[in-house]
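Dear support,

I submitted the protein below through the web form. The confirmation email said the job was done, but the results page showed an empty box. After a refresh the structure appeared. I'm attaching both so you can tell me whether what I see now is the final result or a partial one.
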Amino acid sequence: MKVYGADICIDCRNFKHIRKLRGLNLEFIDITADTASLKEFLMIRDKGDIFKSCREEGGIGIPCFVEGNRMTLDIDEAFSWIGQPPVRKEEILESRD
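What the results page shows now:
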């Protein structure tokens, strides 16, 4: 599974923390690391129906989970694809207060 995100995003930081806690070997593509990664993500974002509300509201749409022809912005849905249970409250590193 590929996960597009950026370290400036709280949800992406939480994903990376959970990935480490669970020992998951999932590819994290930092879209702010280089222009090639950003362009790759923008190609997906500009065409994907799941990003419609993000585009309309000025959001970014990260973290974005991609496996084969499946794509989601929901970590629990993405984890279900690989047989992982939903995220537990105690696994969240940072919360929005």
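Response: this is the final, complete result; the empty box was a page-load delay. The domain at 2-91 is CATH 3.40.30 (Glutaredoxin).
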